[in-house]
């Protein structure tokens, strides 16, 4: 009974901690929803109300009619999807090569990938702008795609290299005996086994690009090229902040991230449980 009581106590304590953490995470989201459903006057009511007395969806309607958020979302989805796919392609190949081959300068190459992550983004802003300007790509989707993949490829390559190292090299050797080339071995044998790692890498790359603000603000100029974070930031005016419009736009901006996570969830779970059971 003592052991059973101790286990029950540990479970109860664990659930209590999880409930507290979940509430802490959900409170800002619930307040965003509450603000988005309030009228312009009720936002500044004192004391603040969690449940609006007059629930209205006018803010959700305004972000599509009064602001070009449809265009912002299209730009974000296009840029972030393209940068994520390109980043996955190159990081998978780089990670596979680094995990399977020994070559001169390998350690220096991997160290260089890590060093690129040590510089603050603000320090890279002017060099990136000058390069993009020289290439004539200011105010284009290509500029944002090039910028985002330069941010994500180094770290994604390290992530994929670590996952490829967990896949036995004997599979490559067996495939080589059967006459498979290196490339065929990669995309027919190794890559399907690495889908959990690819899912985690895709989520990281997508979130990094979707939430990026500073470079998108500097490298885009026209309204037809701006992304969602820029559109939300523009709701802060010189004399007035549209809090309900901002909260409604932020809630809608969360939806793509949630869908991406739900889509890759099963691969993430298999990644977390990989190796948990000894064969």
UniProtKB/TrEMBL annotation:
Coiled coil: none annotated. One of its GO terms (cellular component) is plasma membrane. It comes from the Bacteria. Residues 73-264 form the ABC transmembrane type-1 domain. One of its GO terms (biological process) is transmembrane transport. Pfam families: BPD_transp_1 (PF00528). The keyword Transmembrane applies. It is found in: Cell membrane. It is a multi-pass membrane protein. PROSITE patterns: ABC_TM1. Keywords: Cell membrane, Membrane, Transmembrane, Transmembrane helix, Transport. The chain crosses the membrane at residues 12-33, 72-96, 108-129, 141-164, 185-207, 246-264. Belongs to the binding-protein-dependent transport system permease family. PANTHER family: INNER MEMBRANE ABC TRANSPORTER PERMEASE PROTEIN YCJP, MALTOSE TRANSPORT SYSTEM PERMEASE-RELATED. This is Carbohydrate ABC transporter permease. It comes from Paenibacillus cremeus. The lineage of its organism: Bacteria, Bacillati, Bacillota, Bacilli, Bacillales.
């Amino acid at each position: 009974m003592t052991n059973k009581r101790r286990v029950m106590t540990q479970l109860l304590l664990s659930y209590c901690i999880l409930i507290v953490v979940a509430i802490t995470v959900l409170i800002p989201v619930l307040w965003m929803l509450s603000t988005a459903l309030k009228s312009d006057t009720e936002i500044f009511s004192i004391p603040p109300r969690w449940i609006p007395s007059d629930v209205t969806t006018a803010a959700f309607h305004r972000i599509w009619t009064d602001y070009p958020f449809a265009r912002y979302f299209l730009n974000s989805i296009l840029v972030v999807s393209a940068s994520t796919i390109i980043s996955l392609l190159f990081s998978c190949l780089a990670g596979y090569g680094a995990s399977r081959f020994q070559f001169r300068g390998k350690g220096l190459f991997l160290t260089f990938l890590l060093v690129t992550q040590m510089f603050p983004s603000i320090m890279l802003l002017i060099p990136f702008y000058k390069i993009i300007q020289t290439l004539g790509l200011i105010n284009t989707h290509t500029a944002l795609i090039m910028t985002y993949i330069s941010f994500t490829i180094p770290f994604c390559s390290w992530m994929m290299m670590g996952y490829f190292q967990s896949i036995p090299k004997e599979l490559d050797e067996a495939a080589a005996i059967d006459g498979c080339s290196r490339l065929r071995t990669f995309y027919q044998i190794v890559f399907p086994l690495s889908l959990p790692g690819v899912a985690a890498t895709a989520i990281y790359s997508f979130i990094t690009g979707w939430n990026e603000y500073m470079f998108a603000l500097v490298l885009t100029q026209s309204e037809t090229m701006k992304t969602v974070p820029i559109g939300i930031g523009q709701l802060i005016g010189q004399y007035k902040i549209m809090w309900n419009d901002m909260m409604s736009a932020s809630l809608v901006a969360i939806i793509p991230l949630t869908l991406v996570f739900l889509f890759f969830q099963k691969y993430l779970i298999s990644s977390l449980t990989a190796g948990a059971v000894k064969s």
